UniProtKB/TrEMBL annotation:
This is LysE family translocator. InterPro entries: LeuE-type. PANTHER family: ARGININE EXPORTER PROTEIN ARGO, ARGININE EXPORTER PROTEIN ARGO-RELATED. It is found in: Cell membrane. Its main location: membrane. The keyword Membrane applies. It holds the Pfam family LysE. The chain crosses the membrane at residues 42-68, 75-93, 163-188, 200-222. It comes from Achromobacter seleniivolatilans.
Amino acid sequence: MTATAALLAFTLAAAILTITPGLDNALVLRTAAVEGGRRALMAGLGISAGCLLWGAIAALGLGSLLAVSTLAYDVLRVCAAIYLFYLGAKLLWRTLPGRKSAGVVAAAGMSAGRAPAASYAAPRNTSATGWFLRGCLTNALNPKVGVFYITFLPQFIPAGTDVLSFSLLLSAVHAMVGMAWFALLVAATRPLARWLSRPAVMTGLDRMTGAVFIAFGLRLALEKR
């Protein structure tokens, strides 16, 4: 397989993997709907950075430790489960009665006619940088992503090429495909921004996304190799 053929084949595989519903898409969609497109794109950028990190680890051979060491895999798996539980619980906590954030209260007041509809606000408890770190950690702590890179990437590295540089190139392709998809997801929420700004809708999105995070965390915690 030539380098060009390998790049094309990997791009197609990365695109299918990216658009498959999962934790990354849920995180970006929820952030775009509730906290705005900029923060959603920063979360997507963090997720893509996590892909680059795993690509570099796999290319350097360090990631193979996950494939052969049950202890290393389990430590990373438990850390990821705890982190996802934390994110999910935080989202669910803010939806409890009496726990409405300032952004939700502001949106409620605006919808009642006390401010222009164009000024609809969403709760912004986490900065754009914070969302970048959140997206990066969500991906970097997921051992399944590491195992995917360890087992999947080598199949697209042509014979005779530099393994490190080509692995990083494939990781960059995956990151760019991911960012393009996340940008489409964010753009898709913009026509619905007014409706999504309603307190009841934001609360429902937080509950749904929180439940998804906890479900993924529970799945990781109970998983056996």
